[in-house]
Design brief:
An eight-stranded parallel beta barrel has the order 1-2-3-4-5-6-7-8, surrounded by five helices. The chain is α/β, with parallel strands linked by helices. It has eight helices and eight strands, in the order H-E-H-E-H-E-H-E-H-E-E-H-E-H-E-H.
Length: about 250
C-alpha cells in the first residue's frame, strides 16, 4: 500500500499520538459528548470551540460552561476562526479572535478553511502574527485539509494536511517536504473509518508522520457534519491512542 512504501513517511517508533477534536455540536445539544472530553487521562492535544461559525455575537452560557470544564481538566481549547480560503476581512478575523479570548479564554486558534497556495502565504502569516500579538502563547493550527505550500509550516504550530473520507485516506501519501518536520506539526482528520480499519488508520498516520489525529466512523453527506458527533467507537480509539497499540 502507498503509505507503507512512500519515502516521505517515518516509522511509528517514538511518535506520541494524541487526539485533536475538530469541534462537536453545541454543548446544549451534545452535553454528554463535551463532558466525555474532560475524563481524566483522555489523550487530547486540543479541542476546537466553535460557537456559531466562530465565537458568536455574545457570550454563550452553555459554551462558557463547557470551556470552563475543559480548562479545569487541563484541556487546551482552540477558538474556531473561518478564513474562508483567504476571503475573510482581516479586521473581522481579529474581532472574532478577541471575542474568543475575552469570553472563552481560549489557548489558541483553529484557522479553518485556510488557503494552501503560496500566493496566500503573506496574508496568512500576517494573521498569525496578529493572533500571537493578542495572545502571546496562542497555539495556532491551520486547517488546510490538504498539503499546503511548505512555507506555511514555518509559521504555524500545526497544519491539518488531510481532512476527508477513509476511502481517500487509506491510499494517501505524505508530501515529501513533511519529512523535514517532526510529527507534532501535522494533523489528520478522517471520517467514515470502520472500526475494523481503525488500527490500519492509526498506522497510516504514524507512517506519514502525523501525531495529532481524529478518526470517526461518522460520515459526511448532505447537511450532516461528520465531526459534530462523537465516534461510535470513542472508547476504542482512546484506548488505542493511550497505549500506542498500533506502533
Amino acid at each position: 500500500m502507498p503509505h507503507l512504501t512512500s519515502t516521505t513517511t517515518t516509522t511509528g517508533t517514538g511518535i506520541r499520538t494524541a487526539l485533536g477534536v475538530p469541534g462537536y455540536a453545541h454543548p446544549l445539544v451534545a452535553p454528554a459528548q463535551w463532558a466525555e472530553l474532560t475524563r481524566p487521562g483522555t489523550p487530547l492535544d486540543w479541542v476546537v470551540l466553535n460557537v456559531a461559525a466562530g465565537p458568536g455575537s455574545r457570550p454563550d452560557p452553555h459554551c462558557l460552561g463547557a470551556a470552563a470544564r475543559l480548562r479545569a481538566a487541563g484541556v487546551r481549547i482552540l477558538g474556531h476562526l473561518d478564513l474562508t480560503y483567504g476571503a475573510r476581512p482581516f479586521g473581522d478575523l481579529l474581532s472574532d479572535a478577541h471575542r474568543h479570548l475575552d469570553w472563552y479564554r481560549v489557548d489558541g486558534f483553529f484557522l479553518d478553511r485556510c488557503p494552501a497556495e503560496r500566493t496566500a502565504l503573506p496574508e496568512v502569516r500576517r494573521a498569525i502574527t496578529a493572533l500571537r500579538a493578542i495572545g502571546d502563547t496562542a497555539h495556532v493550527v491551520l486547517g488546510h485539509g490538504r498539503h499546503p505550500h511548505p512555507g506555511y509550516a514555518e509559521n504555524a504550530d500545526q497544519l491539518v494536511t488531510f481532512r476527508g473520507p477513509w476511502s481517500d485516506y487509506r491510499w494517501s501519501q505524505a508530501a515529501e517536504w513533511t519529512a523535514d518536520y517532526p510529527p507534532d506539526r501535522f494533523c489528520h482528520f478522517v471520517h467514515g473509518v470502520p472500526l475494523g480499519h481503525l488500527d490500519e488508520a492509526l498506522r497510516i498516520a504514524r507512517w506519514q508522520g502525523a501525531a495529532t489525529i481524529y478518526f470517526t466512523d461518522r460520515t459526511g453527506g448532505g447537511r450532516s457534519d461528520p465531526w459534530e458527533t462523537m465516534p461510535g467507537y470513542w472508547d476504542d480509539i482512546v484506548s488505542r491512542v493511550e497505549t500506542g497499540v498500533s506502533e
